[in-house]
Structures are given as structure tokens and as C-alpha cells.
Design goal:
heterodimer; A: 408 residues; alpha/beta; Fumarate Reductase Iron-sulfur Protein, Chain B, domain 2; Glutathione S-transferase Yfyf (Class Pi), Chain A, domain 2; Rossmann fold; 3 domains; four-stranded parallel sheet; 20 helices; B: mainly alpha; 67% helix
């Protein structure tokens, strides 16, 4: 097998990440916790393998004969291809970070590896289409971005001031999935109606809402996301809003964690996830839910729970609804199992992510719940699909939908 | 005199080897600096990145964050709280090897200082051995030093057995064994077992009479080797395993000159294996011994700070 002439560009990694890779003890805790490895049982996939490969690549590139003396060989093209398969078959759920005894901040590390693979042009072809859509149309669906409010068309009553109302207190950032995929139109519809009902002064960016850049960033194409971040932040500032609320945990994560870092400046307004806002409204008595007689379980979205630390707000909301019997799944909160819908992994291997989703919906079924509630459109879609494919009698619903239902 | 020459050669070779090891580590670390250091342009020189990193670390050290860092360094980096909470048996095996080697290393270093470095500052062996507590580390035949060394060595060996059992017999599906791991496990076992043999042959060389009888007595050591102030604490038999082995081999009635040669051979073999282990460290998983306490302390501190700042939005997070 011929050696590859590709070299690792270490500027994709931070000094901290270089040291983290050296700190990996290879204890294998991440192997046991990895949802995609559990399904695929493929050695290319698990975190330990990705770190070991990356280390051997840069050591072979930079340490010459000393590396060879200690048995580290230059990678072959097949090694790099296997590395790419492993890195892109990860849902970026960050469960590995939770179980790691060294607390390696794994998710940014996997993204750095993806950036390297983009450099080497060793990434799934579908990502080119994603890049073209997001940078060209400013959304992931490829539709005209002026249609961001298309979900209002089948509403009996459309809340006023939805499209860029000046001086609104709150901007609702809908996210590409919520705004442009009919299956989850009910999410923005529900939140808009809730906000109107409680008398919140709110608006959206309408056609000025661009993709937050999250799908590009996690694909390793983050350098294209800078312009999106700048545009979105300026658009919110132009409205003069005091806060931004997102129903999509990935958008929320990007706004709270990535934008300030990318722009290297304070945003100047507060960013909340819808569950935080709804929990505040419920506790302030502005939302008075009516009884819903259901057995409900909650699925923690990875971008809301593990990577953003929001576990309690959605549970407080569910438990505030009278009549609901709330039951937890076996894997919950920090150890929650991924639904399979994250990390763009579905674009690389849909069968694998479907298997991850199957395991999660089975966990939901084991609780005896008739409803699995999440706080993420993508999780909602993945779980509903898993339930349908595997003939599991359980409904998947977003928490905003459930709250709106309880307000009827 | 013969022992003086041997130790002088040892220290010269040892220092050269340590110097080469330091160069190796610096070489590897210089590659790390090809990566990105937040706040410094990507194409900045490695020196600039190094100074930025040092500045960042000093900023933590001279701030209230140091207490969080120190706490997690001790609890997670040294005590390994997370492993303890999850797998008591793994934690025990890890500490049996890591903890015991750490203590053996500390004891050896103090002995090196007392025996080799203090005389350089004009201190006689008697004066060095008279120092409180550390003075008794002047010689391995002080009873409690012999006992502690013996127990720690045995604990290391027991830990290695547990590790070998889990990895090669039980074949824990969570573990992945790379060829380098096997090399390191062999080297570690050789270091632990070789330590006992080196001790055994040292006892035989020191305490075998001209007639070839193993008959330990402190008078067989010169006052420079075993200062009189330590005589009340003399007790090589407390190093029971090495002592028993020496007693058994002593039945062979071999002359002390032969044992001296064997001792030198095992002494240098032990040294070579330890050096090989040291040199392989940056290229093996065992670099985590150095890196993981630092990283786990830092990452735990960062996680705690992130949790505290969760609802303070729009503030750039520290991202070093």
C-alpha cells in the first residue's frame, strides 16, 4: 500500500487539543459509551481510534526517523480513507466527553479532525451540496430564503409583527429545519402562538434569518460560517431586540457558544433556548397549562443537554402540566443516548444513524410512555422516523407543541 | 571505591540519558506548537506561541482560578476520582502501579539527593545521614526504607498482574491493545521484577563473606557506605523478599567478587530497561502519565466555569 503524501495541518488543532490527544489514556470508556460504535461495531468509528490515528499521522509527519524508530509509520491512502469514514460516522453527541476520565473536550476535537479532512478533500460528497445551499441560499433546504415564514401559511391566525418588527423585545430564531421542513412546521407555529398568547413582544428575522452555520461548522466547513454569524448578529441588532430565543438546540448552541468566539465580541443581547423561556413563563404563571392525561418521557437533545447544559428547564415544563405522568428513560441527562440525528452523520451513513435512533426509541418504549417529548426539531424528526420504521407505538413531539396543546 | 566508581559512571550516564530524554520531549512539544494558540496568529512563530501559552498559564496561576485548578489536579489528576466512582477494581489496579511507582520514584530521587548531591555541598555522609527523616534514605538497608521499598515493589507487581489479567486473559472488550501497549507492559513488569533482582544481588555482593557465606552484618559496609549514625536502624531483612532470595542464592557459596559482577549486570540491566521505558514514553500511551493530570485539571476547571457562566450570554468563552 502506497504511503500518502498528505500531511496534517496542525493549525486545525489548538495547543489544548494537541495536549488532550496526548492525555488520552486509552481506557476505552468512550468505546463503551459511543452510540455509533455500539451499533456498527466498526473499529474505525470509536473515539479512541480517531485520537490514536490522528496522533500517529502528525507524529509520522513531524518527527521523522524518531517516529519510525518507535514504530510509527506514514499513513497510507487507505488509512486516511478509514479515518474519514470513522470521523464522519460520529453524531458529535459528546457522550465520550462525559465518560472520559480526563474530560477531553471531544466534540471540538472531532470537528477539528473534520476540518483536516476537508483540507484533504476526504469528506462525504453530500457536504458540497450542503455548503452550496447554505452559502448560496442561506438555508439547508435549498429553497428561496424569502420563504422563511412559509410555515405561517396554514395557520388559522397568524400572529402580528412576525416579520422583522422593529423594537420587538424578543427575536425568535426559527432555524432552517423548523422554518422550511413541513413535518415540523408545528414547532414554530406553536411557539409563535404561545408568545402571542402571553403577550410577549416578539418578531422573527423573516427572510433575513440565515442559517446559523452550525451544519457547516460541524462538517468541518466552519470557515464559511463567519459571514453567516456576522449577518445574523447584525440583523438582530438592527431590530433592537433585548433577547433572542431559539427552538433549535443546535442554533442555540451556535449563538451562545460559537458566535461570541467567532466574532470575538459580546453579542449585546441575551440568548435563550425556548425551554428556558417557557419554563420561566410557566413559573411566572403566564402560562397556565390545562391537564394532559399522558405518560410522557423526555429525550435530552445532545446540543441542548451535554453541550449546552440545559437539562432541568424542559423537565420543569413537563412536570408543570397537570395530568402528565413523567417517566425517565434508562439513559438520561448527561448520559442520554443520541437519537442519531446529530453531527451530519446521517449524510454519511443513514443506516447507521437509523440504528442509533432505533435503540433510543426502544428505550423510550421501555418506559411505557405513549409520548416521547424532545426540545429539538431534528430529534423529533429522527425519533418519529424510528418509531414509524420499527413499528413502535409511541408518538414523538416537540415540547413547544406539547405546551401549546396544553394551552388550548 | 569500586562502588564509588560505579555510581559515578551511573550518574554521568544517567544525566546524559536524562538530557537526551529532555531533548526528545522538547522536540515533541515543539511540534505541538505548530498548532493554534488562541489569541495568537496561526502563522506566528513557535516562540511567540510558547510565550503566549506561558502567559496564559501564569494568568491562571496568579488568579483565584488556581484553587479550582489545584483541587481538580489533586482529585482528578492524582486521586482519579472519576475512575474510583465508576470502576473500583480498575482504580485500584491503576493506583497500585501508578501510585507505587510514583512513591518509589520519589524515594529514589531523595536518596540520590542525599547520597550524591549533598556531599557536593561539603556535607559528609555522616552529616547527610543525620538529617531528619530524609537522612535515613541514605541507605536502602535502613529497616523501614527496606520495608517500604519491598512493599511498594510487591504492590506494583500485583497491580501489573491485575492489568495483564484484564487485558490479556479476561480480554475486556472495552480495551484496545496496540503493539506499543504490550511493549510498555513488558517493560513495566521488567522494571518491577528487575528491581527485586537488583536488590537481591546487591545484598549478596554487600553481605557475602570471603568464604561465600551470606551473613549480613553492618560492619561489612564501610562508614562511607553506611554511616554509623544509621546503625541502630540497620535491618535489610525487612526487605523480606529480596532478603529471602539472597539467602537462598547464598547457599550456592559463590564468592562476593562474582556477586559483585552479577550485581553490576543487573544494576545496569535495570537501568537500561528504565531508560528504554523513559525514552518510549512520548511515543506510547503512557505519555498520559504526564499529560492527563494537567489536562483533567484544566478541563474540569473550564467545565465548572462554563457551567457558572451559562446564562451570561454574549461573553466570549475562554478557549485556550
Amino acid at each position: 500500500m502506497s504511503k500518502s503524501d498528505k500531511k496534517v495541518n496542525l493549525s486545525h488543532f489548538t495547543l489544548r487539543q494537541m495536549m488532550e490527544m496526548e492525555a488520552c489514556t486509552r481506557c476505552g470508556e468512550c468505546i463503551a459509551a459511543c452510540p455509533t460504535f455500539t451499533e456498527a461495531q466498526n473499529e474505525e468509528i470509536h473515539p479512541l481510534s480517531k485520537i490514536a490515528r490522528t496522533k500517529s499521522f502528525w507524529k509520522a509527519d513531524n518527527l521523522g526517523w524518531i517516529a519510525r524508530l518507535f514504530g510509527i509509520q506514514k499513513a497510507t491512502e487507505e488509512d486516511l480513507a478509514a479515518f474519514s469514514r470513522g470521523v464522519y460516522r460520529c453524531t458529535l453527541c459528546a457522550r465520550c466527553h462525559v465518560v472520559c476520565p480526563v474530560q477531553i473536550d471531544t466534540r471540538p476535537l472531532w470537528i477539528a479532525m473534520r476540518e483536516q479532512l476537508v483540507d484533504w478533500k476526504l469528506y462525504p460528497e453530500l457536504f458540497d451540496m450542503l455548503r452550496e445551499r447554505v452559502t448560496g441560499q442561506h438555508n439547508i433546504s435549498g429553497d428561496d430564503n424569502a420563504n422563511r415564514l412559509v410555515w405561517t401559511q396554514n395557520m388559522d391566525h397568524v400572529p402580528e409583527g412576525l416579520d422583522r418588527k422593529q423594537d420587538a423585545e424578543t427575536v425568535y430564531f426559527m432555524g432552517c429545519v423548523g422554518a422550511m421542513y413541513p413535518r415540523v412546521y408545528s414547532v414554530p407555529q406553536s411557539l409563535a402562538q404561545i408568545l402571542e398568547r402571553v403577550g410577549e413582544s416578539f418578531t422573527t428575522l423573516g427572510g433575513d434569518e440565515w442559517c446559523c452555520g452550525f451544519p457547516l461548522q460541524i462538517a468541518g466547513l466552519g470557515h464559511h460560517a463567519q459571514a453567516l454569524a456576522r449577518h445574523n448578529v447584525e440583523a438582530v441588532r438592527a431590530i433592537g431586540a433585548r433577547r433572542l430565543v431559539a427552538t433549535c438546540p443546535s442554533c442555540y448552541h451556535t449563538w451562545t457558544h460559537e458566535y461570541p468566539r467567532m466574532l470575538d465580541e459580546p453579542l449585546g443581547f441575551e440568548v435563550l433556548h425556548a425551554t428556558e423561556l417557557l419554563a420561566d413563563l410557566v413559573e411566572a404563571g403566564k402560562i397556565e397549562p390545562r391537564p394532559l392525561e399522558q405518560v410522557v418521557t423526555y429525550h435530552d437533545p445532545c446540543d441542548l443537554g451535554r453541550t449546552s447544559g440545559i437539562y432541568d428547564a424542559p423537565r420543569r415544563i413537563i412536570q408543570a402540566i397537570p395530568g402528565i405522568q413523567f417517566v425517565e428513560m434508562a439513559d438520561k441527562r448527561e448520559m442520554s443516548l443520541c437519537c442519531g440525528g446529530g453531527g451530519d452523520a446521517e449524510m454519511a451513513d443513514p443506516e447507521l444513524t437509523a440504528a442509533v435512533g432505533k435503540r433510543r426509541i426502544q428505550q423510550a418504549q421501555e418506559t411505557g410512555a405513549s409520548l416521547v417529548v424532545s426540545a429539538c426539531q431534528q430529534c423529533n424528526r429522527t425519533l418519529a422516523e424510528a418509531a414509524r420504521k420499527n413499528r413502535v407505538r409511541i408518538r414523538a413531539m416537540d415540547i413547544t407543541e406539547m405546551v401549546w396543546q396544553a394551552m388550548q | 571505591m569500586e562502588q564509588d566508581a560505579r555510581l559515578t559512571v551511573f550518574w554521568i550516564v544517567h544525566l546524559i540519558m536524562l538530557g537526551l530524554f529532555a531533548l526528545e520531549v522538547l522536540f515533541v512539544a515543539s511540534v505541538w506548537l505548530r498548532s493554534r494558540v488562541p489569541g495568537v496568529p496561526v502563522k506566528a512563530s513557535r516562540w511567540r506561541k510558547l510565550f503566549a501559552a506561558i502567559g496564559y498559564v501564569l494568568g491562571i496561576i496568579f488568579s483565584h482560578r488556581i484553587w479550582t485548578l489545584l483541587r481538580s489536579f489533586v482529585m482528578d489528576g492524582l486521586v482519579h476520582r472519576r475512575i474510583y466512582q465508576k470502576h473500583l477494581r480498575h482504580w485500584l489496579a491503576h493506583h497500585m502501579v501508578f501510585g507505587s511507582f510514583l512513591w518509589l520514584g520519589i524515594i529514589s530521587t531523595i536518596t540520590g539527593v542525599v547520597v550524591e548531591f549533598l556531599p557536593l555541598f561539603g556535607m559528609s555522609p555522616e552529616q547527610a545521614a543525620s538529617l531528619p527523616v530524609i537522612g535515613q534514605l541514605f541507605h536502602a538497608d535502613v529497616w523501614w526504607v527496606a520495608l517500604v521499598n519491598e512493599l511498594l515493589g510487591l504492590v506494583v507487581l500485583a497491580g501489573m498482574i491485575l492489568i495483564i489479567y484484564r487485558r490479556y486473559v479476561q480480554k475486556d472488550p472495552q480495551l484496545r491493545t496496540f503493539p506499543g501497549d504490550t511493549i510498555m507492559i513488558v517493560l513495566l513488569t521488567l522494571v518491577a521484577a528487575g528491581g527485586f533482582l537488583a536488590e537481591t544481588f546487591r545484598l549478596l555482593a554487600d553481605y557475602t563473606t570471603a568464604a561465600g557465606v551470606f551473613a549480613p552484618d553492618p560492619s561489612m559496609l564501610s562508614p562511607e557506605e553506611f554511616p554509623p549514625v544509621l546503625l541502630p536502624a540497620w535491618g535489610p531483612q525487612w526487605g523480606f523478599l529480596g532478603y529471602a532470595l539472597a539467602w537462598l542464592l547464598g547457599l550456592l557459596k559463590v564468592s562476593p567478587e562474582v556477586w559483585a559482577v552479577v550485581r553490576s549486570v543487573f544494576f545496569w540491566l535495570h537501568f537500561v530497561v528504565v531508560t528504554a521505558l523513559l525514552y518510549y514514553l512520548p511515543f506510547s500511551r503512557f505519555i498520559h502519565i504526564v499529560m492527563s493530570p494537567v489536562i483533567v485539571a484544566y478541563n474540569t476547571m473550564m467545565d465548572e466555569e462554563k457551567a457558572r457562566h451559562r446564562r451570561v450570554h454574549g461573553v466570549p468563552q475562554p478557549t485556550a
